Amino acid sequence: MLVNSSFDDSHRLLRESVRRFVEQEILPCIDEWEAAEEFPRELYRKAGEAGFLGIGYPEAFGGFGGDVFHKVVFTEELMRAGSGGLAAGLGSHDIALPPINRLGSDALKEKVIPPVLRGEKIAALAITEPGGGSDVANMKTRAVREGDHYRVNGSKTFITSGARADFYTVGVRTGGEGFGGISLLMIEKGTPGFSVSKKFKKMGWRCSDTAELFFENCMVPVENLIGAENQGFAAIMGNFQSERLMLSLMANMTARMALEQSLAYVKEREAFGRPVAKFQVTRHKLADMATMLQASEALTYQVADAMNQGKSVIREVSMAKNFATDCSDKLTYDAVQLFGGMGFMQECMVERLYRDNRILSLGGGTREIMNEIISKQMGL
Predict the structure, then answer these.
(1) How high does pLDDT run on average in the chain?
(2) Distances (CA, A) of 205 to 82, 85, 198, 239, 250
(3) Which among 34, 229, 243, 297 is annotated as catalytic?
């Protein structure tokens, strides 16, 4: 595999550290957690103590600092656990905290960011609504200012870490219709009028908790406003760029693990008196899989490099997400095909990869939404 020049010794050392953490703290238990459809809250604390939750955040708040590629390394190695749900759950703060870190008041930052980076508290992002999906500009959850509080009414759905988060970065409508009337509020668990559904049962990402949130005359202090009122849409869109990069990385690692599992299996599995790897159709399938994966990784790294330089990548990150999820769709499908009946069994890694993969082209904006973004950026 070609070496990307964006990785230096600090990235290599971090990769080794995260890999050891996964091997020692996650892999021995991951099958049990998948079956239980939950990983222990204690894992947040362990990841916080190791400094992993602080990657990309200011040292003033207990962060690790680092650049985009430090986050790339962490995401890739965490995915080595073979559970997209664990990566999504443990990393839910990476879509919840950035708006607070960029736009929140000093008091709000101090209240929320340090305990989350220590793994003592859990943060979640709440944007998607029932019936709304990717149509963020038509958000219905409303927040009406009454003195020193906002009265919030509405609901959110498909929220990662929704059942057990402590802090929620919530999209609300404070103004008129369309994107110009949207704001962001930080709402704490336990606030009167705020309730959470039971965890959803999911096809994949089973050991992450996903829930629906309900707000009924929920009174939220005005100081919990993140940024300026009615300016939340831009913050949400900016947040999506990082989320889409992370989903691209998750897709590529899902595809890479499917390829690795397949390569090992076809050398051991025999059919008609010889290893499956000796059949030309198998070799060519694996060659196509490897080629598509290398192209996808190259595009994703190129986008990460541009983000690292502070460049706008609205079109490119949408392209990367679509290409990466197309790649993982194909490679997980082909891996199950190569494994045959064993690939349909839950004891087989590729079965989980196949299930976990399906959400990747839906989360952070569907494939169709990505194509709309790409075409608009092309002037169409």
Answers:
(1) 95
(2) 10, 4, 16, 22, 12
(3) 243
In a domain, 261, yes or no: yes
User: Domain containing 207: what range?
Assistant: 123-233
Residue partners of 376: CB distance under 8 A and separation at least 6: none
Provide the pLDDT confidence category of residue 3 given band limits of 50, 70 and 90: low
Percent of the chain with pLDDT over 90: 92
Report the pLDDT value the prediction gives residue 4, as an integer from 0 to 100: 72
**What does the alpha-carbon distance between residue 171 and residue 139 come to, in Å, rounded to a whole number?**
8
Which single residue is written with the structure tokens 């399938």?
A: 285
Residues 6+ apart with CB under 8 A from 47: 21, 53, 90, 119
Of the candidates 176, 112, 167, the residue with the CA atom closest to the CA atom of residue 144: 176
Write down the pLDDT at residue 152. Answer: 98
Pair 94, 51 in one domain? yes
CA dist 206 and 288 (Å) reads 30
* Strand, helix or coil for residue 372: helix
Domain boundary among 117, 139, 164: 117
Phi/psi at 270 (nearest 5 deg)?
A: -110, 145
In a domain, 1, yes or no: no
Active site residue 34: no
Number of domains in the chain: 3
Relative to beta strand 210-221, strand 194-196 is antiparallel
CATH number, residue 205: 2.40.110.10
pLDDT surpassing 90 at residue 295 = yes
The whole-number pLDDT of residue 271 equals 86
AA identity, residue 291 = T
**Average pLDDT for residues 162-174, to the nearest whole number?**
97
Residue 280 has a CB neighbour count (10 Å cut-off) of 7
